[in-house]
Write a structure and sequence with these properties.
mainly alpha; 10 helices; binds protoporphyrin IX containing FE
Length: about 220
């Protein structure tokens, strides 16, 4: 089912649903008595959700043995960027009225804005190089190395969220735990794969060292 075109379209529409909901409320001017806060929170929430979903794809496909899940990772990552862009635009336009001086001052002065800004800036190269053409141009290994930045963005997003909440830290802690577990899983897998590769190389060498010709030399 995961390979079907209609299923991919369905997932795409589900990812777009929050934006459609927001558009609808915008159209009806139904944005609560504090529209700025509503917009910032709505778009910020969906940015961090899609970041976590993107980070979860690889561990989930390995744990549940569903390799085809990989077909959706790029889409989820691009939706994280899409909601992140809406979030940033909300800040630029509704919060700062595109006042460049005020924006630069705010990014430099308020640590939670600095961290959020860093997280968003790191998403830019990931979104730009998400195409097959860029994977070819950069080469698989360099591309993969670059795309590990998504973990830094995830951590930045969590720190940003943690710093901005005033009292109830349950949600930032939940996202923080999820990002930590996913990061640790990734590191553990990478180390295990390296150990296997080293073991494999040594295993391949072993028969040669035990071969009669080699044995004669030792
Ligand atoms: C990786 C990028 C980012 C993520 C994941 C993210 C996530 C979030 C989240 C989850 C919230 C709180 C939502 C809630 O309370 O329901 C939030 C609020 C906010 N974010 Fe971000 N954000 C990011 C980038 C940015 C950037 C680039 C800016 C501006 C430069 C920014 C400015 C704000 C502001 C002003 C708020 C509202 C603060 C308040 O209500 O006091 N964020 N963000």
């Amino acid at each position: 089912m995961l390979r079907r075109k209609w299923f991919k379209l369905l997932v795409f529409l589900c990812c777009l649903a929050p934006a459609a909901h927001l558009g609808w409320r915008f159209w009806r001017m139904d944005l609560t008595p504090n529209p700025l806060e509503f917009l910032e929170h709505f778009t910020g929430d969906w940015t961090i959700r899609f970041l976590v979903i993107t980070l979860a794809v690889t561990p989930v496909r390995r744990l549940l043995h569903v390799p085809d899940l990989i077909r959706f990772r790029r889409m989820f990552g691009l939706f994280a960027f899409f909601y992140g862009s809406l979030h940033f635009l909300t800040y630029l336009y509704f919060d700062q009225l595109f006042n460049v001086h005020a924006i630069v001052k705010d990014v430099a002065k308020r640590p939670f804005i600095t961290v959020g800004f860093t997280g968003f800036v790191l998403m830019l190269p990931l979104a730009l190089t998400s195409t097959a053409g860029w994977i070819r141009r950069l080469g698989g290994r360099s591309w993969q190395r670059l795309h590990r930045l998504v973990y830094v963005t995830g951590v930045a997003g969590v720190v940003h969220y943690y710093w901005l909440v005033k009292s109830d830290i349950r949600l930032p802690l939940l996202y923080g735990s999820l990002v930590t577990v996913l990061l640790v899983a990734r590191i553990a897998w990478t180390l295990a794969a390296k150990t296997r590769a080293t073991g494999g190389r040594q295993g391949a060498m072993a028969p040669a060292s035990r071969s009669p010709s080699m044995a004669g030399r030792t």
